[in-house]
Amino acid sequence: MSDDASPAPSLIPYERWTDDALREVVLRALELASTEGLPGEHHYYLTFRTDHPGTKLPGHLKARYPQEMTIVLQHQFEALQVDRDADLFSVRLYFGGVPATLVVPMGALTGFADPSVRYGLRFQPSLEAAAAQEEAEEPPPPPAKAEPEGPAQVVSLDAFRRRPARD
Fold first, then answer.
1. Residue 89 burial (CB < 10 Å; 0-12/13-18/19+)?
2. What is the dihedral of CA 30, 73, 110, 66, to 10 degrees?
3. Which of 108, 110, 118, 133 could make an SS bond with 52 (beta carbons 3.0 to 4.6 A apart)?
């Protein structure tokens, strides 16, 4: 048996389970920061896909970061909220002095780091959850346009115009 042989594809999603478990670490870190603040020199770098369904950020940031963005939670962040039911977090940050609220699904997360203790995690974006969310949010198709019954008619608006007053 050779060590060069590639492993057989798994029918059990171990990688996804591992990512899900490690995202739990990020959720707990964010919950700690939202309730107690960041202790000591701790600060978080969060990298996420801006093109992931459910990610919400202002248009100027979306234009500047069309695919991926890294934010730092250290001294100047507000309104950090973790919503476990929706599997996302939101935070208000300042970009050039202008406040912006970002909403990030956990499935969009591609990286987490706390450089103060040299701790970091990398993730694959969760596209399965995103696809299911997109299908659920997909709007119904527009109603079919009715065909005109006859040829189009041109209507003159002259009869409805105001006439200048005569002196």
1. buried
2. 130
3. 108
The model scores a pTM over 0.85? no
**Cβ–Cβ under 8 Å, residues 112 and 29:** yes
CA angle, residues 132, 54, 105, in degrees to nearest 5: 95
Considering only CA atoms, which of 112, 93, 17, 104 is closest in space to residue 53?
104
Angle, CA 50 vertex, CA 13 and CA 107 arms, to 5°? 25
- Strands 88-95 and 78-83, by their bridges, are antiparallel
Q: Indicate the domain borders of the chain.
A: 14-133
- DSSP code, position 11: S
Q: What pLDDT does 103 receive?
A: 92
One-letter amino acid for residue 106 of the chain? M
**With respect to CATH, is domain 14-133 assigned 1.10.10.10?**
no
- Tokens in use for 81? 């909220």
SS3 state of residue 37:
coil
Give the model confidence (pLDDT) of 56-80 as tens digits.
Answer: 998 888 888 888 888 888 888 888 8
- 87 phi/psi in degrees, rounded to 5: 60, 55
